Task: structure prediction
Amino acid sequence: MVDRKEIEHLSNLIKIDISNPQKYITQVEKILNYFELLDKVEIKTDDLIRQELTLDKLREDKFVPFEDKLIENLKKTKENFVRAPKMV
Amino acid sequence: MNLAISISQYVQQIHDGVLSSEEFIAKTLERINKVDKTLHAFISINENALEQAKQIDKKLKGKEKVGACLGMPISIKDNICTKGIKTTCASKMLEDFVAPYDATVISKLKSQDAIIIGKANLDEFAMGSTTEFSYFGPSRNPWNPDYVPGGSSGGSGVSVSALECIASLGSDTGGSVRSPASFCSVVGLKPTYGLISRYGLVSFANSIEQVGPLARTVEDIAFILNIIAGHDLHDNTTIESGKPDYTKDLDVGVSGKKIGIISEMIGDGVDKEVQSATKDAVSRFEKLGAECVSISLDSAKHSVAAYYTLASAEASSNLARFDNLRYGFDFSVEGYEYNQYISKARSNFGPEVTRRMLLGTFVLSTGYYGKYYQKAQKVRSLIKSQLAESFKKVDLLLAPTMPILPFKIGEKIDDPLKIYLLDINTIIANLSGIPAISVPFAIAKGLPIGIQLFANSLQEKQLLQAAHALQKTTNLPGVPI
Amino acid sequence: MTKIGLEIHCQLTKLESKLFCSCKADYRSFEPNSNICPVCMGLPGSLPILNKKAVEKASMLSIALECKIPPKISFFRKNYFYPDLPKNFQITQYNAYGPTSIGYEGKIIIEDKEIRIRRIQLEEDPGRLVYSGSSEKTQITLVDYNRAGTPLVEMVTEPDFENPKQVRIFLNILADLVENLGIADPYLEGAFRVDGNISIEKGNRVEIKNVGSFRDIEKALHFEITRQQSLAERGIHIPAETRHWDEARKITASSRSKEEEQDYRYFPEEDIPKIIIEKTLLDSLKKIMPESVMSKKERYINKYGIPGQVAEILSSDKFYSDLFEQAHTEKNAKEIANLITTDLKGFADTNEQREQLKLTPKHLSDLADAILNNKITRNSGKLALQEIIKTGKPLSEIISTLDLGHVDDESSLLKTIEEVFIEEQKAVSEAKQNPDTINYLVGKVMRKTKGKANPNLTLDIIRKKLDSQ
Result:
């Protein structure tokens, strides 16, 4: 199920350079095999219990500027842009 | 002056005028200086702590209004944002990050004049159960520095246990407050999901985690809970809880209460010392007038698999924002193409974080979503409903916090799955959202054992009352360091 | 058969704040990175806080497009990496696991063609990439996050369009609609963005992205159809691909293939609970919403007996329908509808013309009444209308100035008719046999009186005269 190609595919999706994929192959496979336990559970209902909110609990539509000049705390250029690497 | 006092004792002494915040902070800093080289509970110390203490003493002297915390030192797990002080999440990826805002729980503590004494060590991004995955090196158990302190809030557990602060805020995703509480012999609470604002808690598994307090007594936990609990406009997942006073009626005891002992958590795989401590706790509860029955939670068998599926999935998404473009660490974009740059920057995540990101990406990817993620969600719902059923029969549930005694640093680090399985007793509370607390109960072979209690959603008062009753039966030695 | 589908992104520019935080929704006047906060920057520890009005406005749009609205809506994360995406995921809505977006399975009718709306969803806009430096070598990428978090509704249609003209009409109606509902000003820069997908018979589906203004989509689609057709004619395979509209060269060009197909790993956004959309909310929104085009059209047909085609034109243009609503009475409704949809054509088509129009509802009403009461003929009415548009003078003044009054006076009409009878003796004798020739004679009278003769009266008199001869 988990081979080098799969790890490479995953690391590309998640944007992490992995220098030694072999180590992860074994570990990830072992853990995924453990997750197979989930298959053994019989689920009778499709209903999931999740939190719910009514509309009146939502935020009012008001413009409130952030109290500080946020960009000063971040990596930025002189003109207050954020610099990204070259896009291909 | 004794650092080993509780919050209520501290408050009393300040009010009596026999103690000042400055004295206590100075002594605390001295203590940190002395023991933290060994224990490594802290990633950073607040340089302004003493000055802040002086300010509070000034207000006290001038009979001005001072917040309930009266300048007491509290450590904060380094994944909770503190304005002006670095929040690193024990990761290279946030090595230089200084949050421009305070987490809601921090604002609340500050408004009550608590002093943030320092940021506590953790497993990187809260992923781990031993604090061995910190980029800054492990924390060590004050009961035996060769042993793990539990995790991921290891620094919190250590700092409270080793008298480096009077209380701490940690975070609990799969047991990360209760595990160090148990291994370090302090009290640790994971509150009901939604009781405490997560605004400012760096997300790892956002549908599961909660900020949780650690302290030396249950009373102290109640005190902190009063300050940090409550609905927050900055967090859509917080619930209206009515703001009860958790310190009130703490002494009512457990007479007439029904306590269910979770049978799946006291059998195979549990150290015999832990089993015997559990039996002891049960008989003490019975002596106090509670009725203890055996209860089975068979869905607990699948809880670890469900938890790690969901938590990894959420982590893979929550940590995607760390691409080092807007904040992070020093690494210039010059000469790099976009994908190349961010993949290289993100190779600085530690191995456990990387592992979980890979797992999380896998379980969410096309073709596997139904088999893993959706299945795990259904198992989660099953656990919720099974617990709801249980609470129709009993008021509280009981189990050991950790199935085994603390172990040596480095012992399990090469087998991730073994470490995951340590969470088997704590995880059901996270998946279902119910509150759970670890109470320091016994010392065996010089190592701490904690007993865990669970209550139904928003039943913190009942939970704290039972925990308090149990703690009153104990008479544990002080920390040996 | 050509099939075209659209994907429209419309910013909710009429909102005050962003979708998940209180920064300003309209970012256009800000210096770079000065309309940001921890939430829209996705700083560690930040959490999204949903904007109530965004849900209300999106609900109104769903109602207007006759969509189904689920009892509870959810949000999902779309995970991918890009510099303009602060969290490297976008909070959006997704219906693959069940309908949970703000609207689905709706429709809109344009000129008798039904266009099905597959879904409407709420989502956040990313920031903007700005390129600095001229050559490819020295170019650096700069990011401005002022727009990150701006509220969007995405609307996706089924591929029901058969030609680019229908697309243009649809987009104009949609733009009017969002303006009408107070949701957005679609003419603000970047506020209304359209992507299309198009396939011709036996061809693959091609996506067209990056069409700058929604007025350009018709051009882009025409180009693309031509391109595909010429390939098909030469027996060349039309590959399924994504192309972008090159504004400068006015062509579609193949977009550099984006690595492999993206796997967005959609899963629920649990920082936002499910939102319950109560029926009481929908009912109260319906009450405050301006009447829908559909409902207007039905009312015009059923209440006033206005013919379908006329009602269609009248109801689908807010300017016309507003004019109608203000001008009409029960009696002259049909006539006014006619005047607006036929005679106003060419004089009130553009925004510019409409702004300069001196015509008022009272003018229309007076005019319609005058025609119905036979004070002036329809022909004269046309002339009067043009004069009103130019000068705005009251109808009575124009009638006398242009001498448009009906010739109702039987004796003067008789005089003119007798003149025609003398001039058209051949026609007169024919008319006795051939009734159609009577119309010719009527026409002659109309010409002589410069259109002012009462046509019915003229016809009557001519008939009587022929009978008596």
About this structure: The mean pLDDT of chain B is 97. Chain B touches chain A through 60 residues (CB under 8 Å).
